[in-house]
Amino acid sequence: MTGRSLDAWLAYLERLHPVAIDMGLDRVRRVAERLGVSRPAPRVVTVTGTNGKGSTCSFLAALLTSQGLKVGVYSSPHLLRYNERVVIDGQPASDDALCQAFEAVERARGEVSLTYFEMGTLAAFWLFEHAGLDIAVLEVGLGGRLDAVNLIDADVAVITNIGLDHAEWLGDTRESVAREKAGIFRPARPALCGDRMPPATLVEAAGELGATLLQRGADFDLCVSQTTWYWRGLDAQGAAVELAGLTLPSLPVENAALALQAFFSLGFDIGAIPANAALSAARMTGRLDRRVVTWRGKRLQLLLDVGHNPHAAEFLARELARRPVSGRRLGVFGLLADKDLSGILDALLDHVDAWAVAPLPTPRTRSSEQLQQALAQRGALVEACGSIGQALGQQCEQATEDDELLVFGSFYCVAEGLDWMQRLT
């Protein structure tokens, strides 16, 4: 396998295992032991949840980096390049580094079959161990209990929120989802939950394990005004901490509050001014991601968001209501077939003036005809297009500089939008 390019490795990984998702830790644990990646960093934070994992990781990494720490972040999926999944000291891993890591995992796995995600997770752990990190922030790919990331015992475990998604693996109730996500908790270690009303099964799981559960609304919380916000929480010894006069960040402020509690639970301390600087610097491609493009002489505003379930759509709707535009909001929308189309449209219908819908570049996509029909039945102004790029071009054609283009509905949709933007420059 030596000498393969990153693209060749990724193509190989896609064919390696008979199914894309194969929940369970036995296979990946055997290979991790052979590879010697039981601890990718001296301290580890694991983050799961239905939505908000990426922004919580971004906020936490920014806070930790502000302390002079060497931080590794593992996340998924990526938007444009696989390298985005493995970030060390703020920089995506190089092609060469990833290829070396995949070669190491391939040698270690022997006869054991691994999925694409499992191979990628072990490769990230291998790179982190060789990078001499101070701390690793690991985003769960799916669920928690049986996700490959859960091989590592987290010093602080974080659950952003509990919603319904991936029902075929996690169950079709919030109670079953919460139980799966609580699988990242560890005895006598902080277990943070950003959901204000978590199912009882999450609280029960923390109690059964003996984890130290910290809940938003009880142990930590935030208060938001027009332009600033206030945070209160607990330090690692359980003493009260307050930060006031924080500037509202570009990413969801609820996840900034959760990241702050994780930061203090790790034993670190920070004042309002440096915390504000770190949180304000946090960015996440494709999440409330505002861009400006020039289209045939017009400077147009774009907002890209990867939200692809009702919970994320409701959050996006609140953000859109909070930040009205002087003109129209023109939507570019694509969605996977296994996502809750009705729930997403119900949340966002009143916030988009005209829609352009298109299929995504995957067999799992909903057709443009399906999307168009669902919107037309709700009385929306909608046109079906052949691709996300075509839909963007059409909306740009009719847009004025007072309008905003909203590109959303899927990682695939936002990735296509970003690729289209790059071709403009």
Would you give an account of this structure?
The radius of gyration is 21 Å and the shape is globular. Strand 9 and strand 10 form a beta hairpin. The model has no long low-confidence stretch (mean pLDDT 92). The strands form three sheets. It has an eight-stranded mixed sheet with strand order 4-3-2-5-1-6-7-8, with helices on both faces. It has helices at residues 6-16, 26-35, 53-65, 95-109, 116-131, 167-170, 174-181, 200-209, 253-265, 272-281, 310-322, 341-348, 368-377, 388-398, 411-424, and strands spanning 43-48, 71-74, 86-88, 91-92, 135-139, 156-159, 190-193, 212-215, 221-224, 228-234, 240-247, 289-295, 298-305, 329-333, 354-357, 382-384, 404-408. It has 15 helices and 17 strands. It has 425 residues and is an alpha/beta fold. The protein starts with 5 loop residues before the first helix and ends with a helix.
The number of E-state strands comes to 17
Q: Measured on Cα atoms, how large is the radius of gyration? A: 21 Å
Q: Give me the side-by-side strand order of the main sheet.
A: 4-3-2-5-1-6-7-8
Q: What shape does the CA trace take? A: globular
Strand content: 15-25%
Distance between the termini: 36 Å
Tally the helices.
15
Biggest beta sheet summary? 8 strands, mixed
Which residues sit in consecutive blocks of at least 5 with pLDDT less than 50? none
Helix content: 25-40%
Q: Which structural class do you get from the secondary structure elements?
A: alpha/beta
- The mean pLDDT is 92
